[in-house]
What does this fold into?
Amino acid sequence: MSTTKKIAGAALAAALGVTTLSACGGGDAKDSSAGATDAPKSKTVTLVSHDSFNVTDTVLKEFEQQSGYTVKVLKSGDAGSALNQEILTKGSPRGDVFFGVDNTLLSRALDNGVFTPYEAKGLDTVKPEFVLDKQHRVTPVDSGDICVNYDKAYFADKKIAPPQTLDDLVKPEYKNLLVTENAATSSPGLGFLLASVGKYGEEGWKDYWSKLKANGVEVVDGWEQAYNERFSGSAGGKKAKGDRPLVVSYASSPPVEVLYGEPQPAEAPTGVATGTCFRQIEFAGLLKGAKNEEGGKALVDFLVSKKFQEDMPLQMFVNPVVKDAKLPDLFTKHGVVVEKPENVTPEAIAKNREQWVKTWSSLVVK
It folds into this structure.
């Protein structure tokens, strides 16, 4: 999946194969590797990531100048694909740090031993609820909530209150209004399935999805199709004449609609049903067998620094995990705070994910 990964991947960045970001113009790195017998250790540190990783150039350059390392970013598709490649190359990794494994994939990564334990400098500033691995094989970097979004204009015109909870979505007034992504092929689709597991338990979630299907839920392959084609509330959906006023997306989607609106609206045209959410947490880890372990440690420290954490929301549309990081005005004005998202433990996800998705597919898709 691509957390993360998220709207930033679709809205901000083309999927690049390898991106090198350097504060030094490459000169120092080239000179330091020029064949001397006493050549110093590598000054390049490589971050392996899903396609949605992004950081402001000036923020990255400041880290490079202070640390002496040049950062190379190797983008490798969505998070699931990127992790698969690291599992296949375990012990001889393609980089030094991996960013983008989330709580839906965490146990798989840890069970396969792709990370070396490292307690990041600054970990004490991270909110304790995000530290899921007490051995510090991974470090929390960001969080985001998968939630149902709604088209404010549609519900105002119809004089119907928008739904707020998972229970609401099976009510008759919301029949044929919701579009979601396939849990077998999409990160938000899987997250929405996990929200139902967290809410209704091992037995209840199946009955819930039977009710959703009877209430006309539409399933499409991925977020792009659901949000930018079928959802009536997004800019893309309006152009595509989408007719579904409810969509599974992210709690950060309304600020994105404001940021990229032409002209920029005073108020977000979409809202968030805060009782429908599943919380994703993304992690970074020092890859076992990293060629530049010291540089990798410095890079992990940077990812939980206040400078990076406060830059991150408008680059990847996710929330910081450190206690004192401030959100940008765009988030505080147009975003929402999800007080009680649904959660499922990484261990339960690892044990049951394949069967849950298989059962979900037989209930909803076939």
